[in-house]
């Protein structure tokens, strides 16, 4: 009996040690990630009018409100786990993974409508976090940035950890918001070295927030972004930010024009 209790005690001690080690590892990752967070200057808040929405005649409609046939799950290329409802709204299902377009794109004009839930919880980066990854790599951040302080190179309208938005044109949670983007793909020499970086211009709710800024490399949570060569066209990816504290955010009416 005594030996039994000794074994139990030893097991508990090992389990506690392992979870303490996990916590230390997580804490040191968070500390590393904090090195690339900028907290000022805080972009000024700007209110906006109704932005345009209808797809031009030469656009490829990626989210039509009827099906998700233009998309698949990024990880295993299987069916999308996000939920499309009767109103034609697609909502992220936490833990179901990022989704990506079947078609690959390079230079493009993109229109995206997105909405944070009106009953929003959490703070900073765990408040309605998603993202639009151009070429599956370069993230335009999606986040509730209405009265939600976070590092400013990680708020809505930022090129994540690379470019602070010029102003904060965010709407309240529960209201539809729009991104209109002009994206220029990077170019690489035959040996894989960077020839020209990617460039991006972003309007949030009709207000210019990124003016033809050069993207510095693949989006990184930790460390400095760098480029590595990829194809001229790659799929567009929407993020399921698994760490978010339960804020199912939604998308609708996404269209793209190849340039
Ligand atoms: Mg994100």
Q: Overview of this structure, please?
A:
It is globular and about 75 Å long. The protein contains one helix and 17 strands. Strands 2, 4, 5, 7, 11, 14, 15 and 17 form an eight-stranded antiparallel β-sheet that branches. 34% of the residues are buried. It is an alpha+beta fold and 259 residues long. A hairpin with a 5-residue loop joins strand 12 and strand 13. The structure holds magnesium ion. Magnesium ion binds next to strand 8 and strand 9.
**What is the CATH H-level superfamily of the largest domain?**
Exo-inulinase, domain 1
Oligomer: single chain
Briefly note the structural class of the backbone: alpha+beta
DSSP summary: helix tally: 1
Helix content: 10-25%
Assign the CATH class of the largest domain: Mainly Beta
Beta-strand percentage range: 25-35%
The pLDDT mean sits at 91
Number of strands: 17
Task: Specify the overall morphology.
Answer: globular
Number of domains: 2
Distance between the termini: 75 Å
CATH architecture of the largest domain: Sandwich
For the report, how would you describe the main beta sheet? 8 strands, antiparallel
Q: Which sequence of SSEs, written as H and E, runs from N to C?
A: HEEEEEEEEEEEEEEEEE
What is the third-level CATH name, the topology of the largest domain? Answer: Jelly Rolls
Q: Unreliable stretches, pLDDT < 50, 5 or more residues?
A: none
Bound molecules: magnesium ion
Radius of gyration: 21 Å
